[in-house]
Each structure stands twice: as C-alpha cells, then as structure tokens.
Amino acid sequence: MAGLWLGLGFTAGKSIAITLWSAITAPFRGQTGGATAYKHVAITFARSFFGTASIEQIQLSLSENLRGALLLSPWIDFGTDHESFRTNADKDAISAESLGRWAEALFGDTKMDKYTNPTDAPTGWWKLLPVEKIFIGVGGDEVLLDSIVSLAHKMKTEHPDVLVSRVPREFHVEPITDFGLGLSPGVQYQAMAAWLNQTFSQ
C-alpha cells in the first residue's frame, strides 16, 4: 500500500473536512472502492480529541463542538461474520475477501482496540464526541450493513442528534460512485445533500 494522504481543513472552528486519498497498488489494483479501507479513520480522528489511540493521532483543542460529522458506509468493524456478508455477498461492490486484504495492509499486526475498531467501544464512549450532529448513511445491499446499523444504534443511545439514513438497494458508497460516473443523484445522495445543507447553512 502506498501513498496514504490525510488532509484536515478548518472553517472558523465549525467543521473539519477530512480528505482521504490513497494510491492503490497490488493487490488492490483494479478493485472497486479501494479507498474505502480508510473511511473508518475519520472516526478515529474524531475520537482522538480525547484519550490515547493505538495509532498516531492528531490532538486538537476546540473552543466549541464541531457542527457535524457525516459517515457514509463507514468501515468500522473488521469482522466478516455478520449476516449481511452472506445476504449481500452478490449485491455489493466489495467483498469479505477484499476487506480482509485491506485490513491486513492497513493494520498488519496492530492490536485492535476501540479506536481502530469503534464497535468495540465501551458504553458511554460516544457521549464525549465533540460533534453536534451526526449523519450515518448505509445502503441496504452493503455487506457492512449489520455492523454499521449496530454502531448507529449504539451512537443513537449516547448522542442527542444522530440521523441514520438506510436506503434499500444501494451498495457501498453508491452516492460517490454515481457522482463519479456522472449519474443522476440517488436517494442517499439527496439525503446527504439535504443534511449537509441544513447542518452547515445555519
């Protein structure tokens, strides 16, 4: 794996834009959605404002909470034994096999903990998240569906403003794929746009 680049952009202390870019090399060349291996890193950065992570973290001092955080098809659990891996195996753009290779390339022998695997976070961990609103988008045809829904449920019990947008018959990060191919915006894309407009136009 080569060229992981992380960029943070700040706007008047209100938001952080995390840009993830990766130069995909073998064994990932030619596979759909290679950059998805880094999506869960956004959660790690958000939580790294507090405590000590097992991977290098960025410490930020905030005078106020971030206005919002958008998580689209977040890869936040490295297990592949969820039921959705079986039911959506032939529907999604990614597979258990590709996720396994990405996990190995990204973490290797790194010990998994609540930062690298947020679904293992203890009760109360999300209460300290310095974000006012959270959007979690997931497609009904994703192999990651079960783990994302599980995390969303846990976050909703601890955070006052979490919107979960579950769209039937959409695959992993479909809004991004559609946009890249120049296709008309789908249901999830429109839901994301509406949430972003409402959250950041205030």
UniProtKB/TrEMBL annotation:
Q: Which domain of life is it from?
A: Eukaryota
A single GO molecular function term of this UniProt record = hydrolase activity
Q: Which InterPro entries match?
A: AB_hydrolase_3 (IPR013094), AB_hydrolase_fold (IPR029058), GDXG_lipolytic_enzyme (IPR050300)
Pfam families associated with the record: Abhydrolase_3
Q: Does the keyword rRNA processing apply?
A: no
Name of the molecule in the record: Alpha/beta hydrolase fold-3 domain-containing protein
**Protein keywords:** Hydrolase
Which stretches make up the Alpha/beta hydrolase fold-3 domain? 64-173
